[in-house]
Specification:
CATH architecture: 3 Solenoid
Organism: Alteromonas ponticola
Largest sheet: 12 strands, parallel
CATH topology: UDP N-Acetylglucosamine Acyltransferase, domain 1
Number of helices: 1
Strand content: 35-45%
CATH superfamily: Hexapeptide repeat proteins
Distance between the termini: 13 Å
Shape: globular
Order of helices and strands: EEEEEEEEEEEEEEEEEEEEH
Keywords: Acyltransferase, Repeat, Transferase
Protein name: Gamma carbonic anhydrase family protein
Structural class: mainly beta
Pfam family, one: Hexapep_2
Oligomer: single chain
InterPro entries: Hexapep, Hexapep_transf_CS, LbH_gamma_CA-like, Transf_Hexapept/Carb_Anhydrase, Trimer_LpxA-like_sf
């Protein structure tokens, strides 16, 4: 695995974390227990902080980044990802805040100062422009994103199951690496 210190700040890893050897994790990045980071993910906590909650997974080719602190924006925009979140392949998350039990579809882009509440599906290829708030319990799709419809009970249940599936998969990888 590739973990880099940046200006004396080293990423912090919880228990049973899997980081593929082809991923890059740099700087102020905190990964909670059972997080999985898959090939070609770049997570750069160089100008602000990235936190990823327990049992969340970030799939192949995703870019995670932040917005720096400035006089006009003293806190900047850190990247916060909650628990039991599935980030699909080739996504771009930049300075946004995701709650718990969210699925971000492949190729989605979520921009600065977006807040995604708990229990949300974001469809593949969706663009979420800056400063939006996505309400809990809905499917969002499109470019730019639109609130499509309420989630069905089976879809809400799948959000947690998706995270469980990736915890099991990363456990298999951890066993084969030892």
């Amino acid at each position: 695995m590739t973990i880099r210190q940046y200006q004396s700040i080293t990423p912090h890893l919880g228990d049973n974390v899997y980081i593929d050897e082809l991923a890059l994790i740099a700087g102020d990045v905190i990964l909670a227990d059972d997080v999985s980071i898959w090939p070609f993910v770049a997570a750069r906590g160089d100008v602000n902080k990235i936190t990823i909650g327990a049992r969340s997974n970030v799939q192949d080719g995703t870019v995670l980044h932040v917005t720096r602190k400035t006089p006009a924006n003293p806190e900047g925009y850190p990247l916060e990802i909650g628990e039991d979140v599935t980030i699909g392949h080739k996504c771009m998350l930049h300075g946004c805040k995701l709650g718990n039990r969210i699925l971000v579809g492949m190729g989605a882009i979520i921009m600065d100062n977006v807040v995604v509440e708990d229990d949300v599906f974001i469809g593949a290829g969706t663009l979420v422009p800056p400063n939006k708030r996505l309400q809990s319990g809905y499917l969002y799709v499109g470019n730019p994103m639109q609130k499509k419809r309420p989630l069905k009970e089976a879809e809400i249940n799948f959000l947690k199951q998706s995270a469980i599936n990736y915890v099991e998969l990363k456990n298999d990888y951890l066993k084969s690496d030892s």
